[in-house]
Amino acid sequence: MxxxxxxxxxxxIDHHTYSADAARPALEAAxxxxxxxxxxxxxxxxxxRALATRLSLAPAxxxxxxxxxxxxxxxxxxxxxxxxxxxxxxxxxxxxxxxxALRSRLEPVAAEAGVEVRGFSRMTDAEVAERTGLSLAVxxxxxxxxxxxxxxxxxxxxxxxxxxxxxxxxxxRVTRGGRFFHLTGATDKGxxxxxxxxxxxxxxxxxxxxxxxxxxxxxxxVDDAAIIPQPERGLHPDLVAxxxxxxxxxxxxxxxxxAIVLAWLDRTAALP
Length: 272
Hints:
This protein is α/β, with parallel strands linked by helices. The protein has two domains: 2-95 and 188-267, HAD superfamily/HAD-like (Rossmann fold), CATH 3.40.50.1000; 99-184, 2-Layer Sandwich (Threonyl-tRNA Synthetase, Chain A, domain 2). The protein contains ten helices and 13 strands. The protein has helices spanning 24-32, 45-54, 99-113, 125-132, 136-142, 160-168, 189-197, 216-221, 237-242, 253-267; strands at 2-6, 37-39, 62-64, 69-72, 84-85, 91-94, 117-119, 148-153, 173-176, 181-184, 205-210, 224-227, 247-248. It has a five-stranded parallel sheet with strand order 2-1-11-12-13. A four-stranded antiparallel sheet has the order 3-4-6-5, with helices on both faces. α9 (237-242) links the parallel β12 (224-227) and β13 (247-248). α3 packs across α6 and α4 (125-132) packs across α5. It is globular, with a radius of gyration of 18 Å. It starts with a strand and ends in a 5-residue tail after the last helix. The mean pLDDT is 94.
C-alpha cells in the first residue's frame, strides 16, 4: 500500500489563489492508483471537508489544526481506540487541547515573549478574509477552531523559538505556517501522521510534502519527504537543514507538488 500525507496552503494549494488546478494530473493518478491522500494542515475540519469535496479526494483521514485531531471516514479499515462518532459522519480522534484553554494562554505567552498579538478569536470573518484572501464563507469555516488558535504579532518581529519556549512553559506549543503563528496543545503534525500511518499495513510506503516549519514533524516521520518551495523565498532553510535527504520540488505550490507526486507514484508503482 502507498499513502500520501500533504500540507495544503502553499503545498497542494497555491499560496495566493488557493487553487489546486495545477495538481489535477497527480491527484487523478493517485486516485486511479488507489493511493489515498491524507491532508495534514492547520485548517479546520469544516474547511477540510469542503476542500476534500472540491478536490474529489477519495475518503481518507483528515489531520486538522496542525495535528489537533484526526477525522477518519466510516470506510477507513481501522480506527484507533478513543475515536468518537461525528454528527456529520466518520469518527474523530482528539489529540490536542480544547481551543478555549488555548485562548486563555495566548496573552500570557505573548507577554512572556514581549510581543502584542491578535488571535483568530478576536478577528471577524471580514478581517480573516482580508488577511488571507479567502472568501467570507471560507473565512467563517477557518474561524471554526476547536484545537488551535492562529495569531499574528502586532508589535514587530519575534523569533519562533522565543514564542514556542513561552508556550511550552504553560503546556502549549507555537508553530508557524505560511501566514500565521499557531498556538496548539502538546501535539504536532508528526504525532498525528504516525497514528494515521499505524492504521495501515506495516509495509505501507509513505510520501510527505510540505513547505513551512510546521510541516517539519510531518516530513520527519514519512518514508519519503519532499519540500515545496515558497513563492517569495524558495525552499525554507529550516526544512533543508533538517532534512538533507528530502526531495526538492522545482516550483512552488501545486506545480511543484504535481511533479513530485507523479514521479513518486511512477517510482513506487511496483509496490503492492
